[in-house]
Amino acid sequence: MDRRGCRRGWTLLTKDRRIRYRTDELNALTSGHLFCLADGNATLDQIAQRFLDAMPTIHRAVRNTEVGFWHVHDRGRITKMWP
After folding, report:
1. Cα–Cα dist 53/73, whole Å
2. pTM recorded for the entire structure
3. Exposure class string for 34-69: b at 16+ Cβ within 10 A, else e
4. What confidence score (pLDDT) does residue 58 get?
């Protein structure tokens, strides 16, 4: 995860489902948001479509919370994983 992006408050997108077990990377998430695909085995087309479908929900989550780690599911659904 890019610490500079977190410090800048950027919204980060990843398909790395194991990131939730990496303490150093989650500790870098002091500001900003991380959205991770719940299904890391998706094809590139599926990855793009899931993030595109979730964009309205991602924008709402970013506006309404200071920091967070979220899973992105199909059909635009997200679930908060941390904090």
Report:
1. 9
2. 0.82
3. bbbbbeeeeeeeebeebbebbeebbeebbeeeeebb
4. 96
